[in-house]
Amino acid sequence: MQGEELGTLLRHDRGQFLEFLSAYAHKKKGTEPKRSEELARDIARLLGGMANADGGTILVGVESDKSVTGIPHTPDEVQVLIQAPQSLLSPPLHSSYERIHLGNLQLLIFEVGPALEVHRVIGGRTFYRIAGDNPSIPAEQIQCLREAKNTFHYERQTIPEATWEDLDFGSIKSFGEKIGDLRDPKAILAQAYHLIDRSTQRPSLRMAALLLFAKDPAQWHPRCGIDFVKYEGTDRQHGSSLNVVKRIRFEAPLWHLIDEAAGRIKEHIRERMILHDLFFRERLEYPTTAWQEALINAVAHRDYTLTGAPVEVWMFEDRIEVRSPGLLPSPVTIEQLRSQRRIHFSRNPLLVRVLADLGYLREMGEGVPRMFAEMEHHGLRPPEFSTEGFFFIVTLRNTPIYDEATLRWLNQFGISKMNFRQRRLLVYAYSHSKVLSNTDYQRIGEVDRDTAYREIRSLVKLGILAPLKPKSRAYRIIERI
To answer: How far apart are CA 20 and CA 35, in angstroms?
Structure first.
């Protein structure tokens, strides 16, 4: 890796696929080099977490603010660092590494792909990368993760009959320009994204490379696109009562399939005719972020082993259903999604990394909470999750929870700073003399006394509520308009 390529990495922020690791310990007494054993263990934890998730890159010798401070260790100690993923993880992790010298500063760059096994720090815990965090996995989830990794094989399988001529190198070049990587297209696919299997004498294309960049993806997967169907009314009808208004099939390489489909689907999303209401900025019946997040997740996380069905988007008068082939992988449950728990697991980590770098997938584990927030912000019902046969379905309804006057009133408080319970309780108070009590909060919010007190105090600190009198358990709303 040359200095220019290192500069490309440093232009990115740390996150799901990139981490900066300092070789120094910053203490109150001053800064000093980390012990090589401590730094090696840091490397093992980070690489293990990335391998257990979607893969990634670690730059050792770089501070969190991206300043390059180097590795001030002896050659023998640096060798300990290089061996860390093999010596400190079980089973041993074989990552690639490279030494870089910038003037008199030495750096190490580790690169690892998504692993087919679960790697644990010897004598320690198992880690899993989520966005910029590297939390340990509870013991009960480790077996679920092992089982789920069995689904990795489809996108990683090599296709012997596929050749370089089957790829659209213009698309790969455009992709490289978009992410700021101007290397040869083959180097981009092989080194950063593990889309080429180079373990044999003759490098082979992986299925993920063909889904993303093939000239004709349908040659390799018959239903890897998106079907959009618009229905009249609120139910599907068949036979002589068939109520299909519009049907569009989108077939394109995955790297630009989402944009192509979203642009056409958006034409069918109606504007909400609401006047003088700053709450609805887009005035659309569905928030763009919410339905596009559901579409992106369906493409990124569907089960591609189910080759007989595409991602489907069904639009009715009262809802959109985004239907993804394949049930949720075992580490993820519908209950976790409904409770908006921050959870991330990629059935297709090779595809996910490319889509993330394109900007489709932002903060990992935040997509579903973001859908809830957008629907709530626009006064609509929360997303619904269900299964039907082998489809996982996300349903977004266009029916408002509150009337327009209530929404305008609620918007004065900057509701993005509040959770759904707090919003709901303010609406309750709006219709009850603009006063509420701790008991009201417990009953309507379905929480215990301590939670009610804590969330009410949060509203007091935001200047939204004030006690009716000192030490009172009843509160009045401080209106701003």
So the answer is: 17
- Give the residue-averaged pLDDT of 336-360: 85
Q: Give residue 236's domain range.
A: 226-397
Most confident range, picked from 288-297, 457-466, 471-480:
288-297
Q: Which of 363, 348, 298 is nearest to 113 (CA)?
A: 348
From 229, 216, 186, 184, select the one nearest 204 (Cα to Cα).
186
Q: Is the peptide bond before 91 cis (omega within 30 degrees of 0)?
A: yes
Number of domains in the chain: 4
CA quadruple 364, 366, 368, 369: dihedral, nearest 10: 170
Q: Are 212 and 218 in contact (CB under 8 A)?
A: no
- Judge if 359 and 430 occupy the same domain: no
The encoded tokens of residue 33 equal 């080099």
Encode burial over 160-194: b for 16+ CB neighbours within 10 A, e otherwise.
Answer: eebeeebbbeebbeebbeebebeeebeebbbbbbb
φ, ψ dihedrals at 239, nearest 5°:
60, -135
Q: What is the DSSP annotation of 13-46?
A: PSBTTEEEE-SEEEETTEEEEPPHHHHHHHHHHH
Give residue for tokens 């105090």.
457
Are the beta carbons of 25 and 69 closer than 8 angstroms?
Answer: no
Sequence-distant (≥ 6) Cβ neighbours of residue 235 within 8 angstroms: 243, 316
Domain end (from 338, 371, 397): 397
CA distance 131 to 454: 28
**N- to C-terminal Cα separation, the chain:** 58
Calpha distance 56→271 (Å, rounded): 41
Q: Which CATH number do you get for residue 272? A: 3.30.565.60
Q: What is the pLDDT of residue 24?
A: 94
283 vs 319: CA distance, rounded Å: 16
Question: 144, 150 in Cβ contact below 8 A?
Answer: no
* 25 and 72 housed in the same domain: yes
Provide the CATH number for the domain around residue 437. 1.10.10.10
* Among 56-65, 76-85, 355-364, the least confident range: 355-364
What is the chain's Cα-based Rg?
26
Judge if 471 and 371 occupy the same domain: no
Q: Which residues contact 10 (CB under 8 A, 6 or more apart)?
A: 59, 62, 66, 68
